[in-house]
Amino acid sequence: MDHKETDISGTPVLPDQGRRNFLETTAKATLAGAGLAMGLAACKSDKPAATAPAKAAEGDGARAVAPGEFDVHPGKLDSYYIFSSAGHNGEVRIYGLPSGRTLKRIPVFNLDPMVGWGITNESKKIMGTKPDGTLKYTTGDTHHVHGSYTDGTYDSKYLWTNDKLNGRIARIRMDRMECDAITEIPNVQGFHGIFPDKRDPVDSNINHTTRVFCGAEFHSPQPNDGRDVNDPTKWFALFTCVDAESMDVRWQVKVDGNMDLVATSYDGKLAATNQYNTENGYLLADMMSAERDACVFFNIERVEAAIKAGKSFTIGDSKVPVVDGTHAANQDPKTALTCYVPVPKNPHGVNLSPDGKYFVCSGKLSPTATVIATELVHKWFAGELKDPRDAVVAEPEIGLGPLHTAFDGRGNAYTSLFLDSQIVKWNVEKAIAQYKGDKSVQPVVDRIDVHYQPGHTYASMGETKEADGKFLNAGNKFSKDRFLPVGPLHVETEQLIDITGDKMRLIHDHTAYPEPHDAIIVRADVVKTKQVSDMNDFPNAVKSMDDNRVERHGNKVFVYMTSQAPNYGLAEIKVKHGDEVTITVTNHDKVEDLTHGFGIEKYNVNFIINPQETHSVTFKADKPGAFWIYCTHFCHALHLEMRSRFIVEK
């Protein structure tokens, strides 16, 4: 019998090295075939990298995870939330940590008949409609989720997420975990990176989020109205600022290159985005002609002062002011709006350390991470630093395909290595010492295999001043043999890692329906939610159980009704064939978790009403006959009997 490796509980461990080698080789071959190897092969010699420590064996310092050590037993609650994007599903998801259990799916840019998102009048108003009342978009592509701040940490007020597909930003109220606003950003395509400011950049007395910054990845004609479609030399991308409260677009900045991710400083003064294609090329060869790309820093106060001084222009029909943040227009540091810090080609990801001292850009096509000192960027803007490249204080070699970096609050960074299928742990101060010439220092202190090809990685409270260094999650792009096969499309692998000790420990896998990207991990005690709504928050509420009625105004019928388990306020609703019908329903139950559903057979109507909430729907009575209305959400022992009749007369 062949010997099979087992884990600490005796469970057989599937061999994965061959698959990892296959994926790594394939990825590198693809890059090389596209002319993008950029020295990767030279960096991967037959010998282990000098910065890569040997993997620790049992008894050699490694700590095994004991069975059940991180279990969340029945009746117990998780200690953290994960708020995650969902990719081209268009929603935001909430997981519990450390269990990995799915707690909620928040519809944002997608249709969801369970809650009625995209069906009710209230949700359609938020999503945006055409003149005929149909939704303007029914698709979306969320990549990043970030929360609002007070004093450098999460305040449980808002979450924001992007729609890369249709250039929209959405806001989620954290007390309800529901989307309450969506704004379409003008003049952009490929809206990818997103990050709120952590305090006001102009008014030092405002110590909470006031703005959200949005990076557009794709060049496009400006305006995109049919002109210049065959002249890409006139195309460019825009960096956008959205007001955190009104969700109005405040301003935009024209930049060189394609923006990937966004980060912001704790003092509110700076926003940063990693740029590839700073050549502004539109063919691959043109995009690779420069030796380096850049991490671009925006001096927010100066941008807004320039707009106030009238140094802006508009594009097409948009009234949003735009300023020129290109490299050529910002040569004088003392007046510059932007600072282009050179970094290796095609950087992927920019993240700020919890102490606010350093921005880290990963190389992607270089095996390095670039550490940029916040203080030195400020000095460049003050005219006290000769070259923007002098703001770089470290550039350690950490492995192949570095993408995104998280932090533990103890001086360590954790970067995902796409080609190596690993998370690498490295020390920022050691990297700085090595960059200064100390050859005895090794920045890389640990690395762990993940399965497979990680994209984003994020740590518990790691995007705040309260980074606690407990958990790290690796969001992997492939799962292959990690779960039972369910056909060609596999779920994706989210792997939870314990980072409390010197050595990282893989705790468990949890699944994610494709394709999540980035997320944040928030302590459970930070999040404060409403369990029962206030009926007064809904202007169209049917507040009295005696106010159930049907009103007719020409061929428009308005139905006002209540629900209280196990009854609807109206046993029967009669309308005429061809009528436009609006039904408004208020849930009068006050018990937590006592939600009612409202579905009409054959009429494509289905939504829920939480306790003390009101929702409405409008549709045309285009089918004559008798149709049952029933509660679609279990609410009572007599749930099956909770019905009403919808009669459409000829």
TrEMBL record:
Molecular-function annotations in GO: calcium ion binding; copper ion binding; nitrous-oxide reductase activity
Cofactor: Cu cation
Secretion signal, residue range per the UniProt entry: none
GO CC terms of this entry: cell envelope
Domain EfeO-type cupredoxin-like: start-end pairs: 561-632
Major location (coarse): other
Keywords for this protein: Copper, Metal-binding, Oxidoreductase, Signal
Location relative to the cell: Cell envelope
EC number(s) given by UniProt: 1.7.2.4
PANTHER family: CYTOCHROME C OXIDASE SUBUNIT II, NITROUS-OXIDE REDUCTASE
Name by which UniProt lists this protein: Nitrous-oxide reductase
